[in-house]
Amino acid sequence: MKELKQVVGIDVAQKELVVTLGRMFDDLSTELYAYKVFKNTEKGFVSLTDWVKKLSDE
Question: Which of 11, 19, 23, 57 has the least C-beta neighbours within 10 A?
Answer without folding.
Answer: 57
